[in-house]
Amino acid sequence: MATSMTIWEKLGFRKASRVGEAGWGHTLWAALVSFIYFLPVLIIVITSFKVQNEALSVPAKFFPTSFFGLIPEQYVFTPTLENFTSVFSRAFTTGGAVENTGFDRYFFNSMFIAGTSVLLALVIGTLAAYGFSRYPLKGNDTYLFIILTTRMLPAIVVIIPIILMFRIVGLSGSYPGIIFLYTAFNLPFTIWMMKSFFDELSLDVEDAARIDGSSELRVFFKVCLPQVVAGLAATFVFGLILTWNEFLFALLLTGSDTRTVPVAMNQAVAGGGIGVLWGLLAAIETLFLIPVFLVTFFLQNHLLRGVTFGTVKR
Amino acid sequence: MTTTAIQTPPTAFTTLALDNWKLAIAGGLGVSISACLAMPATSSFWVVAVMMALVAVTFVVNAFRRHYYGGLLVSPAIAVLFVMNIFPLLWSLGLSFFSYQSNQQAIRFVGLANYSKLLTDDLKAPELWANLTNTAMFTVLTVSVQMVIGFLLAVLFAKQFPLRRYLLILVLTPMMLSVVAVGVFFSYYYDPTFGVISQIIKAWTGEQFILFSSKAGAVAGIVFADAWMWSPFVMLLVLAGLVSVPTYLYEAAAIDRVGSWRRFWTITFPYIRGLLMLALLFRTIEAFKMADLIILLTKGGNDTMTISYHVIRIANEQNKTSEGAALSYLLLFVVIVLTNLYLYIANRRSQGN
Amino acid sequence: MSTIEVKKITKKFGEFVAVRDADLSVKAGEVVCLLGPSGCGKTTTLRMIAGLERASEGDIVIAGKRMNELPPEKRDIAMVFQFYALYPALNVGENIAMPLHFEKLSTEERNKRINSVAKILHLTEVLDRMPGQVSEGEKQRIAVARAIVRDPNCFLFDEPLSRLDVELRHSMRGQIKEVLSNLSKATVIVTHDQLEALTMADRIAIMKDGMIEQVGTPHEVFAKPANVFVASFIGTPQMNLVEADLKSFGKGVASIILGGSAVEMAADPAVSKLRPSKVMIGIRPRAFTVQDKASKDTIHAQSELIEPMGAETLVHARTKTGADIRVVVPREKRVKIGEILHLKPDAKQTHFFGEDGMAVRT
Fold first, then answer.
1. B122 near C CB under 8 A
2. Whole-angstrom Cα distance, residue C270 to residue C352?
3. Residue B14 to chain C, least CA–CA distance (Å)
4. Which of A197, B89, C186, C360 has a beta carbon 3.0–4.6 Å from C352's, enabling a disulfide?
């Protein structure tokens, strides 16, 4: 019956070969939905290649080339890299001198602050999660509940005292201040997520390692940690996405040297007086999206496994 | 847990040792109090910090010598959370009983006046209620849209199909965007003259379309942007539940000729119920805190002010720090009530079954 | 009629061929076991019959109808899964009821059917419990109950007993066999346990590397293995398979050199077709008699290792050329390590295999 395969089936438009699997037909649907869903992002990316008057043109120009005359000229724009270069240096007034915008610094700040604080939260949170999971304290559940509640706090409840506190200690506008704050911001989630991972592990393996004479440190690093890599990756990605784009704390607690991209982006929008420079803003966001997009893409499998593992049994 | 180390006896109170935490607390407390009385605020703060560090060190050494690994592992996290969350929270609670404006030096104890003013003042109480109802409306709308869209997306991606990996990341992207960019670009899409949406509608109806001209339009615009951004989060959680259903159950259902409706309710739904509730809780809390998108899209115009934005305005733009603190405590109260209500329902559900 | 016919089916996963040209037919009321080591394609074959996998080539005919393209729902079959696949959110009674919803029965009729299968499989007491609250053995019976609660075209079992302990396995074997004999449906059971296959099956299909090596009754596959693989796979302790030189054959007697000893033994006339060459001789460990003296029909070997097995003793002996021979002797026969044994194989239980590994038999 090998010959009964039609040309459609060969192209992949076939019935699923087993339960829970689908062929290219399903891909087509998913691609359509994904494309529509992704469209607003795509427009941002396209806009980053347009000069200002093309970004504001009516009708909107969507296509970088006319595909050999296939697309009417009015929908075609001339792609330019100008926006990307002017992210980093441009003339602020027409005819003025080209100045550094400081965005290289802001990109570094965003990476440094988000990376450090998420990693710090991961280290502290993983240790705490291991502690909560393996050496339960008196009132363990109360501690955990309080930790979860702090995650639910509206940021504004704590932000006023933190501003005052930072002002007194001299941490406002410094790296340690904002990093410390973001670490605390990421901790509750990290602890809950990692605890549920440690709870799932079999204790037998650890006891076997102890009987073989491994120290507690060795048990933790050589036996437990390698088993929760998916959880670490998932927690890292979630933390990174949230911290990377955090706006309110960054707006109120970073100084001119420690400003992160979202804050700088907001200022680039607000400042200028000649309306929003759409192409420029789109270029900033496109550049800003790339790192977190890549991290998510490469840790994607862990992400899905991590969420399942970490929360399903809760 | 399995350690059976012989307990080292506690160090005597008077011995000067690094694990004598009782002495460290006593000494530290003494030094701190005298420093607070004698020195100006900034330097006394540092003295208190050093004393706290000393107490912390004795705790750590004590825990290590006596194998209290639990406390040792947990303490850094507790310390960070205490300094950055609990302590500011208490400070904020204290502030709410004072009259204080951050641009003025004067500070005065007023008791519950801030709260009573917010709740009974002829001008402020109706505004608060209006903002609360707005917030509730936003929360209900955006969360229900997110749950539905997130769920449908998850169903679409639950199967294994070619290129799934690449399409999934496209759907996840909105979640990775900065709120600033989402806010600004949605106002670009909604713009009456050059916005994409307006252009399409204009081509259709022939009239210029101004979304933000009415409250319904403004609410729809905000909910659309927020739901677009956060549905992928719901999708991720639901998807995790869907892929955790063992394949053999679906195979058994196929053999048993179970209809798709029954299959969903008896096999799939029990696996995603917990995650759906979790997504609901997370998104409700986040939606309740919504402020940034509104700041960027309507600036509270057209009666789209939410309670969070209100607090930010009072505390940051109008510098009424203590009034903001009181209001945020009211807000916290609502969040805690909501959370407990949720936990109550979730528990009753799981016991009921 | 409840029959299953599998005609030359092949399953490819990319480049890998899991099942190759498998042929099998199961009559109504017949129980066929698919037996083989893990990874031999037996479960894949079963899943293709069920419609859980699509066959790459070949035909699957159930109850006289070609069903290749039909999904499992349309094939009207019942299957017991290896991990039972009980619906975790439903209680035992609801689990058993699942296949009945399709038939839109009245509630009374449905309850009547559930109660009658529950009675057969001793599940009446646990009907209200959740799958997480019952024992392994009960789970297994629930899975069987769910399969037999309706009247399907055929029954499929995927390693039904592999998760039970030895005792439960023994009693469940009997129960399943009894239940199946009352139903008279075509049944396919996949197993890697030959004891299970030998006791439960009317016929056994032995698979290796995706191919069916032999189909026959339990007696046939044991007494007349078609090739070296079947010979080595069926029977414990494993059959001795020793390389030997065939010197000559005449008057029903073959002269061979086996493990350094020249042996003469009665052989099937078909052996005459073999040219004097290397052959493989298969002798079951229980087919030897230990002689006191060497003679022209004994093999010379020295005992090396002794394993008491209760009623019998398994002796590992080594021939002069170093080939290992397993011999089962009665318990009373005391064999010492290092003792020289003169082993006389029973000609009727001796199998000749040619160079291609196939049995030489008329």
1. no
2. 9
3. 57
4. C360
Partner residue facing C57 (CB), from A1, A17, A18:
A1
Stretch B212-224: mean pLDDT: 86
Contacts of B268 (CB under 8 A, 6+ apart): B242, B245
Please enumerate, as own/partner, the contacts of C304-308 that have beta carbons within 8 Å and a separation of 24 or more: C304/C337, C304/C338, C305/C337, C306/C335, C306/C337
Say what the pLDDT of residue C291 is: 87
| C83–B248 C-beta distance less than 8 A | yes
Comparison of pLDDT for B68 and C316, the residue scoring more = C316
Please judge whether B267 and C89 are an interchain contact, meaning their C-beta atoms are less than 8 angstroms apart: yes
The pLDDT value recorded for residue C228 is 92
Record: fold of C240-353 = OB fold (Dihydrolipoamide Acetyltransferase, E2P) (2.40.50)
CATH code linked to domain A108-266+289-311: 1.10.3720.10
Q: Is residue B84 situated within a structural domain?
A: no
Copy the structure tokens of residue B51: 């004393």
Cβ contacts of C291 within 8 Å, gap of 6 or more: C298, C342, C343, C344
CA distance A144 to A191: 9
Range C4-233 classified under CATH 3.40.50.300: yes
Q: Is B4 an interface residue toward A (CB < 8 Å)? A: no
Assess contact for B255 and B171: CB atoms under 8 A.
Answer: no
Give A86-143 pLDDT, tens digit per residue: 888 777 666 677 777 788 889 999 999 999 999 999 999 999 999 888 888 777 777 7
pLDDT for res B347? 66
DSSP B21-70: HHHHHHHHHHHHHHHHHHS-HHHHHHHHHHHHHHHHHHHHHHHHHTT-HH
Compute the C-alpha angle B242/B227/B177, nearest 5°.
Answer: 95
Residue of C nearest to A2 (CA): C57
Evaluate if residue B104 carries a pLDDT over 80. no
Residue ranges of domains in chain A: 108-266+289-311
Strands C288-291 and C340-345: antiparallel
Across chain B, mean pLDDT equals 81
Phi/psi for B111 (5° steps) reads 65, -130
**So what's the pLDDT on residue C260?**
81
Residue B3 has pLDDT above 50, yes or no: no
In three-state secondary structure terms, C89 is: coil
Structure-token pair, residue C348: 């009727």
Backbone angles phi, psi at C253, to 5 degrees: -120, 130
**Separation in Å, CA B308 to CA A89, A178, B223:** 36, 22, 16
- pLDDT above 90 for B105: no
Q: Which of chain C's residues have a Cβ under 8 Å away from the Cβ of A15?
A: 54, 69, 71
Question: Which DSSP helix (H) or strand (E) runs through A91?
Answer: strand A89-91
Nearest chain A residue to C59, by CA: A1
Two tokens, residue C38? 């893990």
β-strand pairing of C203-208 with C31-35: parallel
Query: Is the CB of C69 less than 8 angstroms away from the CB of A15?
Result: yes
Q: In whole angstroms, how large is the CA radius of gyration of chain C?
A: 25
What are the residue boundaries of the structural domains of chain C, listed by start?
Answer: 4-233, 240-353
- What is the total count of domains within chain B? 2
Sorted by sequence, the CB contacts under 8 Å of residue A202 that are 6+ apart come out as none
CB contact under 8 A, C98 and B246: no
With an 8 Å Cβ cutoff, are B70 and A43 in contact?
A: no
Q: What is the structure's pLDDT at B32?
A: 78
Q: Which residues of chain A have pLDDT under 50?
A: 1-5, 10-16, 310-314
Low-confidence ranges of chain C (pLDDT < 50): none
A261 contact B CB<8A: yes
HSE toward the beta carbon, residue C259, CA cutoff 13 A: 22
Distance, in angstroms, between C290 CA and closest chain B CA?
53
